[in-house]
Amino acid sequence: MNSDDKIYVAGHRGLVGSAIVRALLTQGFTHLVYRTHAELDLTNQQAVRQFFADQKPDHVILAAARVGGIHANNHYRGDFIYQNLAIETHVIDAAYRQGVKHLVFLGSSCIYPRDCPQPMREEHLLTGPLESTNEPYAIAKIAGIKLCEAYNAQHGTHFVTLMPTNLYGSHDNFDLETSHVIPALMRKVHEAKIAGAGEVVVWGSGAPRREFLHVDDLAEAVVFTLGKEESLELLNVGSGQEVTIAELAEALCRVVGFSGRIKFDPSKPDGTPRKLLDSGRIRKLGWHAKIGLKEGLHETYRWFSKYAITT
Ligand code: GDP
Q1: Most Cβ neighbours (<10 Å): which of 89, 164, 241, 288?
Q2: Known active-site residue 112
Q3: Which domain holds residue 223?
Q4: Which CATH number covers residue 277?
Q5: How far is the CA of 124 from the centre of ligand 1 (A)?
Q6: Partners of 106 in the β-ladder
């Protein structure tokens, strides 16, 4: 890869895309192209084909997706499957038609079976039923992975899928209804502290275990993978650091400085009991996570305090 290659980052304003843009710029890739949702609707196939024909990018990073936490995935099931299928098929096919050399597609660890052996390896894909709360999203992401694999097999492309574990960091969505657990709890704990409340409510039992990865670590993995000629196909990207939701809530209380009680709300779903990736394959290639959970939570809270505070 050359530093003046043209790289299209789809989804550059989101948690993942914005981190990838920062990482690319830091590593000297300055010929970047991106469009806001208003400028280019990726669910419009004609618009996507026209954009690729006009811009002719050398490489593509597909970080655009309809995403959300357990509640959003469960409630907007139709939107999650349709919009993600449309975005993937349009962008991946347009990239192939335009002769794009490398594409990195972002999957998610929820594509693995709900009762998958832990830690989850790439070959566990499609070996069992999915977790129902995010099945539509997972089905769309699995279709995207298979699209990349099929195009590689038929057309000789170098399209690779990275499967990150649960991500967090700056530029996240802090909306309480639609966000993932870290931004949701960070905001709840912060608001409880400001209000002088005695307790903060955490959904579910607190027992599910999750592995968290700072989005800047994922961005490094994306840049590391982009431009590689060997057939990588599918790579898990995780930190290996796993905590229960209860432990996460306690850590967030310490980071925010809240000394009240943690109350669990069992009327809300737990989702998958455990989601730990085996990231041995990408580690063998030379990438590893650098940002620990405590450090990452402090950094994210600094960003939240500066840019996302509503109270
Ligand atoms: P998941 O990893 O796909 O299940 O997505 P989430 O990040 O939304 O949720 C992870 C876990 O955190 C689930 O067990 C949730 O029930 C739990 N959780 C606890 N409190 C919250 C909250 O306020 N928001 C969200 N999104 N999850 C929460």
Answers
A1: 164
A2: no
A3: 7-308
A4: 3.40.50.720
A5: 23
A6: 162
